[in-house]
Amino acid sequence: MEKIELKPASVFEMFARINAVPRPSKKEEKMIAFLKDFGEGLGLETIVDETGNVLIRKPASAGMEDRPTVILQSHMDMVCEKNNDVDFDFERDAIQTYIDGEWMKAKGTTLGADDGIGCAMEMAILADNTIKHGPLECVFTRDEETGLTGAEGMQPGFMTGQMLINLDSEDEGELFVSCAGGCRTTATFRFTPETAPANAFFLRLTIKGLTGGHSGDDIEKKRANANKLLARYLYDGMKAWGLRLADIQAGGLHNAIPREATCVVCIPNQYKEQARVRWNVFAAEVEEEFSVTEKTMEFLLESTEPMNVLPEDVSCRLISALQAVDNGVYAMSQDIALVETSSNLASIKQTEPGLIFVNSSQRSSLLSNRHNMAHTVAAVFELAGAEVETGEGYPGWAMNPKSEILRIAREEYVRLFKKEPVVRGIHAGLECGLFSEKYPGLDMVSFGPTLRGVHSPDERLLIPTVDMVWKHLLAILEKI
To answer: Please, what sign has the CA dihedral across residues 220, 222, 226, 231?
Structure first.
C-alpha cells in the first residue's frame, strides 16, 4: 500500500511537536510552558491568564488591518486512556503515532488529536507569514475534558475578538452551531467491610474490549457500557445465589463510555458452577445484543483469593441502584434529528476499604431536562442510601440564526468543495457554551477534521480531512 502524504506538512509537524509534550487534563503545566515559549519565540504577544489559558496575538496581514479580529480556539489537554497491557505514563511519555491506511493512530493509547490537531492548526497559522488574515487571537484553553474549567475560569476581556472559530469538532463537512450543556452526579457509598460468610467462593469478573467512545457524541450509537453490563450479571447473581460484592473497579473518565469493568464477588460455594454457567450464557446473550457495535468484547471469569466483602444490605442497595439507574439516550430533540438528553454511568470505584464512588454525567440541550435527568439519577442513588452530589455543570450554546461567521463558513465550503456542509448541533459540551455566557454577542462556529474512537485507545484521525479543514479555515480567514 502506498504511504499517504501528511498534508499540510506544517500542521502535522506541529502535531508531532505537541504529542511530545505531556498534557493530561488538570496537569497541563508543560503544555502551557511549551505554548508560551512558542508564541514568544515568534515575537508575538503571548499572555497566560490566572487559570492557565494561553492567548497568542498575531497582527493582520498587510492591507487587512481593518478586518474584525478573529479568535481561533482549541483546548490543550487530552483524554489519557490506554489499553491495560500497555506500559505508558501520560505525565512523562510522548504519544507514539503510526499510519494505518488513511488513518493516524497511537500505539495503545489515545492519540491526542482531540484537540491536539486543533492546536496544531493554530500554531501552523501563527508560524506562517504567507497566510492572509485579519487580526488574530489564538487561544488555547486548559482542562476542557474534565469540566471545561479553563473556559470557566477565563475572565471577560481576555479575548477581544468579535468572531470565534472553535476547532474541536470531529466530523469534516459539518459546521456546528450549538451544543448541549452538562453536569456530573456523584454517589458515595460508605460502609464497614465484613469478613466473608463461611463457605464463600470468590470470583473475579471482567468485561473488556468494548468500543467505548465519547459519552456525548457517541451515546446514540448503541455501544455497550461495560458498567451496565456488569450490573446486569451482578443483579441476576444477587437474586439467584445471594451474590455479594467485595471489590469493584469499573469504567474510567466521566466523559467516556466505559470500555472495561471488573469486580470481585463472593457466592455460596454450592452455587459456583451455576455462576460459571450463567456467566457463559450471559456473555453469549450480550454478544448477540451488540453484534454490530461490539466485535471484540471479552468476558473473563476466574476464581480468586478471599477478601472482606460489603455488608449484605449495602451490596444489595448498590447493585440494585446500578441496575436501575438510567444510562444512554433519554430523549431526542423535537426540533432536529439530535439527542436532546442523555446520561452516562461512567465509573464505579472502590477507592479504599469502605468507600465506593459512582460517577455519572448528564447532558441536555435543554437546561430543564438536564436538571430532570440529573435528579432522576440522583433519586436512584438516594433511594439506595448513598450520599449524592450534582455539580453546577456548564451551559449549552444556542444557535444564532443571524450568524455572519456561519454564513461565510458555509459559502466558502461550497466554493471549495462544490457541496453543502451539514449545519447542526452536537450532543457534547463545547467551550462555546461558556464563551456565550462570558462574551454575549460573540459570533461562533465549530468545525474540525474527522476523528473516530475519541476518548479511547481506538482514537484515530482521518488524514485527508485535515487538509480539507485547513483549506477551509484559511479561506474563511481571508474572507472575513
So the answer is: positive
Distance CA 16, CA 6 (A): 11
CA distance 83 to 407: 42
Separation of alpha carbons 5 and 132, rounded Å: 25
Task: Classify burial at 217, counting beta carbons within 10 Å of its beta carbon; exposed 0-12, middle 13-18, buried 19 or more.
Answer: buried
Output the pLDDT for position 406: 96
Residues in the chain, pLDDT under 50:
1
* Termini Cα distance of the chain: 41
Backbone angles phi, psi at 32, to 5 degrees: -60, -45
Q: Cα separations (Å) of 20 from 12, 129, 418? A: 13, 25, 37
CB 60 within 8 A of CB 133: yes
C-alpha cell at 378: 440522583
For residues 98 and 259, what is the distance between their CA atoms, to the nearest angstrom?
Answer: 23
Q: State the Cα–Cα distance between residues 269 and 283, nearest whole angstrom.
A: 22
Interior/surface letters 469-480, b for 16+ CB within 10 angstroms, e for the rest: bbbbbbbbbebb
* Cα 473 from Cα 128, distance rounded (Å): 14
Q: How far is CA 302 from CA 241, 263, 438, in A?
A: 18, 11, 53
Residue 54 to residue 190: CA distance in whole angstroms: 41
Specify the pLDDT at position 2: 60
Return d(Cα 133, Cα 59) in angstroms, integer. Answer: 9
Query: pTM of the predicted model, to two decimals?
Result: 0.74
Which residues neighbour 225 within 8 Å (Cβ) at sequence distance 6 or greater? Answer: 210, 257, 258, 327, 328, 344, 345
Cell numbers at 17, concatenated:
511537536
Phi first, then psi, for residue 423 (nearest 5°) are: -105, 120
Enumerate long-range contacts of 104-109, CB under 8 Å, 24 or more apart: 104/460, 104/461, 104/463, 105/458, 105/459, 105/460, 105/461, 106/457, 106/459, 108/82, 108/83, 108/457, 109/80, 109/81, 109/82, 109/83, 109/457
Q: For residue 416, give the C-alpha cell.
A: 471549495
Scanning 421-462, the segments in alpha helix (DSSP H) are 432-438
Grid cell 476499604 — which residue?
A: 353
Question: How far is it, in rounded angstroms, from Cα 46 to Cα 410?
Answer: 31
User: Which of 139-171 are b and which e, b meaning 16 or more Cβ less than 10 Å from the residue's Cβ?
Assistant: bbbbbbbebbbbbbbbeeebbebbbbbbbbbbb
Cell numbers given for 435: 464563551
Calpha distance 306→453 (Å, rounded) = 37
Q: What is the dihedral of CA 271, 273, 278, 283, to 10 degrees?
A: 140
Contact residues for 459 (Cβ-Cβ < 8 A; gap 6+): 105, 106, 110, 111, 112, 113, 114, 451, 452, 453
Catalytic site positions: 77, 144
> CA-CA distance, 329 to 363, in Å (whole number)?
10
